[in-house]
Amino acid sequence: MMAYRFSETHPMHPLRLDLTARLCTELGLFERANLSVVAPPVATDEQLATVHDVGYIEAVHEVSEHPDVPNEARGLGTEDNPAYAGIHEASARLAGGTLLGAESILAQNALHVVNFGGGMHHASASKASGFCIYNDSALAIQRLLDGGVGKVLYIDVDAHHGDGTQSIFWNDPRVMTISIHETGMSLFPGTGYANEIGGPGAEGTAVNIAVPPRTSDAAWLRAFHAVVPQLAAAFAPEVIVSQHGCDGHRDDDLSNLRLTIDGQRQSALDIAELATRLCEGRWIATGGGGYNTASVVPRAWSHLVAIASGKPVPLATKVPQPWREYVHERYGIWPPESMGDDAELWWRSWEVGYDPADPVDRTIMATRKEIFPLFGLDPWFD
Fold first, then answer.
1. What Pfam family is a match for this entry (predicted)?
2. Most-buried pick from 17, 18, 165, 324 (CB within 10 A)?
3. What gap in Å lies between CA 210 and CA 362, rounded to an integer?
């Protein structure tokens, strides 16, 4: 999976995957009796074609074999998505990991699956975008549908709007995509507003909560709990697929949010609870964005693995010293000593009331007004 490497200086550097796997190992997560680590296969062109245009897949192959000939019309060979030899196989392997998760759910070989190398949510059916070549989450969702699953809920907590996944299922009422992200007025890709609600016949199945810059844990979690659980229950999915980009962290340079590891861990716990309550536990979780390679990403995604395997790592847990020493030797910095950021996670529930002077509350209300009535819910009181 380390072959997904645009360049040594590109923000999406695969060392973040290496450091996450090393931290999971040091924490003993990979030794848990109920957890198996499985090598991801390379997705076939036929599998990729279930959500991607054949012409686009051919374009990725071409750039993969001739990286000196970009295809900017397809988003390949751009500043965000530099071309390199082998880009097809590397991207198809990330996709294969999440597809394997869908196969495992369908075969009842697993209840929870994590692919922290996945979460490539900007890739659309016909174009690469935002560091993403193939949309692994969309591929997994389509495989679940093709395998007989009636409804799939996709929850995206990356700082950036999950535009690619939304666009692929825009007209499909069997898939609800919920994205909570920094507003497109201040952050790439510039989309994801409350009035993006889905295509004809699928109105209400695209849900967007576009929070303002500098939103912190309390406001983020208020927004999440004012929208997501209610719509999830009304939609009644059979499987949840979630994207856990951790670039909303206050120490990540690619967004303007102010989240902490504590808040991101809580989001994962909340999604796990929804899967338990609504889907008999069926849940596929992916990674996504996250560009503070040493201090943030490994901790956030190790928490995700721990939660998925049924025993969360307490926030006060000390980061294993061998891992810290490895990071210091590799980067010349000392990462945090604790698995948490010692943040205050209390948030004001929606039932306490709506404050029209609060920009986050206005965001919440904009989404609730657009979507809730379509599911028989009251945007003010439900």
1. Hist_deacetyl
2. 165
3. 10
CB of 247 closer than 8 Å to CB of 289: yes
pLDDT in tens, 49-97: 999 999 999 999 999 999 999 999 999 999 999 999 999 999 999 999 9
Q: Is residue 183 within 8 Å of 226, Cβ to Cβ?
A: no
In a domain, 187, yes or no: yes
CA 237 to CA 138: how far, in whole Å?
16
pTM flag (> 0.90): yes
CATH of the domain at 154: 3.40.800.20
Q: Is 164 within 8 Å of 138 (Cβ atoms)?
A: yes
The number of distinct structural domains making up the chain is 1
pLDDT of residue 199: 98
Angle value at C-alpha 162, between 159 and 165, nearest 5 degrees: 160
Say if residues 132 and 60 touch (Cβ distance below 8 Å): no
Phi/psi for 91 (5° steps) reads -70, -40
Which residues are known catalytic residues?
Answer: 122
DSSP H or E stretch at residue 19:
helix 15-26
Strand partners, 338: 318
Helices and strands in the chain: count of H runs, count of E runs:
11, 6
In the structure, what pLDDT confidence band is assigned to residue 382 with cuts at 50, 70 and 90?
confident
- Asked if 245 contacts 289 with a C-beta cutoff of 8 angstroms, the reply is yes
In a domain, 234, yes or no: yes
Is residue 2 included in any domain, yes or no? Answer: no
Residues 299/338, Cβ–Cβ less than 8 Å: no
* Nearest-angstrom CA–CA distance, 110 and 282: 8
**Does residue 60 fall inside a structural domain?**
no
Paired residues of 132 in beta bridges: 129
Residue 254 contacts residue 11 (beta carbons within 8 Å): yes
- CA dihedral (288, 292, 294, 295) in degrees, to 10, reads -110
Residue 198: HSE in the Cβ half-sphere, 13 Å Cα cutoff: 22
SS3 state of residue 132? strand
